[in-house]
Amino acid sequence: MGVHDAPAWLLTAFVRSTQEAGATAPVEEVRRRGEELLARWSDPERTFHNLRHLADVLMRVDELAEETHEPDLVRLAAWYHGAVFDAGWKRDAQRRGGEDEHASALLAQQELLALGVPEKRAQRVHDLVATLWRHAPDPADVDCSVLCDADLAMLAAEPQRYKTYVQALRAEYAHVPTEDFLRARLRIVHKLLERPRLFASPLGAGWEEPARQNLAAEEQRLRKELDALLAQPAQA
To answer: Which domain of life is it from (predicted)?
Structure first.
């Protein structure tokens, strides 16, 4: 899905949330900023962290919105949470994904301030985005819990869609050698399964069981693939 194929509601939703957050800039300027964000999410190298993922996260935020204190700030955080992206090997080697949460948080703060969003609210969006780096929200922070849950909701997708998600992730890191990717992904999946809870919000708790089933099945597949790879004779 490219920027020209983006559903019309996406840009409208960005303008509405930005205005609800207190933006004072003319609507044309807000729309231009939204179009720039859509272009970022439309980078062809993004085979998973793309416009479809953005739309999914926004829709999940809407599902959980009744639990939030400031839903439009959560929506803006969703817009910016992967705005800065680099699938390069150096980031993967650091056991981090392509989404640069810290750079995205700074971008959000700078751009929202430029649109006239009050400093306190722009800072709040910054903090929400930055928290996604560890996906360990403060249980008392319901807005952060909703954002984290919306971002992880793909883990609870039906099995076929989950399989498509895993394939898209692999394509996004196609430059990473197979063994390195399998080991890195296995670490991520194992750490997720070790968590006492994957989802922090009350409504998000309903995604817990299907997510764990998907992760457990993926962990088993990854171990089999890695074992088969290691069993192959070394190339002369």
So the answer is: Bacteria
